[in-house]
Structures are given as C-alpha cells and as structure tokens.
Design the sequence.
C-alpha cells in the first residue's frame, strides 16, 4: 500500500438491508481493527445531550418535509437545525475515530474523511430489493409497518441525507472504490474480495 502497508480507514455505505453490519464485523475480524456503527450514536448523545432515539432519527434520515421545515428559519443567523447540529458533532466524532485504522458504517463517513484528505477505502453494498426486503423481514426491523413501504422509506431517507450533505447521489459508483451486490455473492466471499482489494489499495 502507498503508506507503508497501513490499512486505510474503511467506510461502508449501503442500501437498507444490504448487510452492512455483517460485512463490517467480518472485515473487523479479518483485519483486527474496530468497526463503528451504533457506537457513534452513543458518543453523539453523550456530547450533545440529545437522546439516542433523536440521533437515530436525525442521522442518515432526512425527509423532504424535514428539509422544508428547516428552510423556514434559515434566514436567522442563530438558527441551527437539529439535523445540522447532529451532523457537525457526528463529523467531529468520525474524524476522531479515523485517527487510527477502523471501519465506519454509513453516516457520510466517506465524504467527511475525504474532505479532510484522510486516506480511505470506500465500499458501497447493494442488493435486489426483494432480497433486502426478505432480510429486513427476517430481522423484524419493520415492526408493525408494511414491509415494502418501510424499506422504500428508509432508502429514500438515507438517499436524501446523503444528497443534502454531500451534493452527490448516494448510490453513484463514482463515490466508492468498490461496489458489491450482497444478494448475489456469499458474505464470506464478499469479505475475501474486499480484504484483497484493501490490501492491494495504493499499489502502483
């Protein structure tokens, strides 16, 4: 690798239900470095006073209604929306975590770290909608909500969030070093592929 074979910070963005946490955990075990997802929410709650539920709802989830409401007091120089406030604290937390090799799931980590010229290997995970829906249904994350509408809404919220804070499309291949269909390739093979790609990263 370009920096003495040091593992770069690995970021994982993913469609909802594409198995981001599973892949992150596998890569963590493979490389012996920590992975962060829910941990970031806990740290933001500690630093801001917001509840973890508020942060979970505001982080990576931005509806068109949220954007509409936030635009009204935008002319006030003292106004900062809950979304913007949490984003700034989240940004600082991600920069702190990235001081050492690690794996960060979501939360615009690829964009945040690149803006600070921090070396990253950026991954995007996607899968057929039906397969993602089945996975979410098995986990029961939709609760009493209609499964199809639940997954569609989570996809839209995540896409809006990425677009709002980066200006780019969430699922554009140009934002990542590697994109993988987790619905067609076994998870262990995906971890093998990514591990080999990370180890080769930066070699001329």
Sequence:
């Amino acid at each position: 690798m370009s920096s003495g074979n040091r593992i770069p910070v690995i970021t994982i963005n993913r469609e909802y239900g594409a198995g981001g946490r599973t892949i992150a955990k596998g890569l963590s075990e493979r490389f012996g470095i920590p992975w962060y997802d829910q941990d970031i929410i806990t740290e933001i709650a500690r630093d801001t006073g917001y509840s973890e539920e508020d942060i979970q709802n505001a982080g990576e989830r931005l509806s068109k209604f949220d954007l509409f409401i936030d635009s009204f007091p935008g002319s006030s120089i003292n106004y900062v929306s809950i979304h913007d406030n949490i984003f700034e604290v989240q940004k600082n937390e991600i920069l702190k975590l990235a001081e050492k090799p690690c794996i960060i799931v979501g939360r615009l980590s690829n964009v945040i770290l690149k803006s600070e010229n921090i070396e990253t290997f950026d991954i995007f995970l996607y899968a057929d909608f039906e397969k993602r829906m089945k996975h979410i249904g098995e986990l029961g994350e939709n609760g009493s909500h209609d499964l199809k509408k639940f997954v569609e809404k989570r996809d839209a919220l995540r896409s809006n969030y990425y677009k709002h804070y980066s200006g780019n499309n969430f699922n554009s291949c140009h934002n990542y070093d590697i994109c993988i269909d987790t619905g067609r390739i076994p998870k262990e093979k995906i971890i093998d592929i990514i591990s080999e790609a990370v180890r080769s990263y930066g070699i001329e």
